[in-house]
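S1.2 Input.
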Amino acid sequence: MVPQFAFFASMLLFLASAPLNASPTPSTPSTGLEKRFKTLKDQWDNENISGRFILYNNLWNKDKAARGGFQRTEATGYWYDGDRRTNVLAWQTQYNWNGNPREVKTYANAALTVGLRKSISAINSILTRWDWEYTAASGGLTANVAYDLWLSGSPNGEPHSKTSTFEIMIWISNRNAGPTGTQVATPNVGNKAWRLYQGQVENWTVYSFIPPAGVEITGYEADLKLFLSA
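S1.3 Output.
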């Protein structure tokens, strides 16, 4: 059996059709000495955050917005949480896309850059906490908020590439969006109920864990390793 390697992890905000100023943003402690971060406006703008995360604006499919639009992504804080003994990134995205609501336009995301390219058997846990909110959202919003984990048969592979074997998505919000494939199970992972969808994209299989209808998890704390053996 070919060993699987977990080598890429992101916190994603999928945007298909969205209102002005809908921003997922964790709380940021005020120190009076806040670092100035870049405002990411263009299609492939990104910023390396202290060598641990890369924040992407990622307007990869913006031309699908039939009536145009815009998006801005910006880090609002980065600090060390002594109580949890972990680094915390706060960021926000402001956007307004119009037309073709079933077409994905963008995927603003914060990508982890450390502790990757390991065999699954060598990973004890993938601990995470994500607090987020929409500060404004239209009733017709089509979007999701999710984690994205990529697996490969090679430790030197890249996400979304010919070496990719599996993509595991954990959706913590779903507003009128649809996952790839069809529902295959209703597992309980991390003491929460999920609807599991399976589908195929190019050469890799996608597993999407979706909350029950109407459920939105705005303060999510979990061990994502559990989803690799669900």
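S1.4 Remarks. The mean pLDDT is 86.
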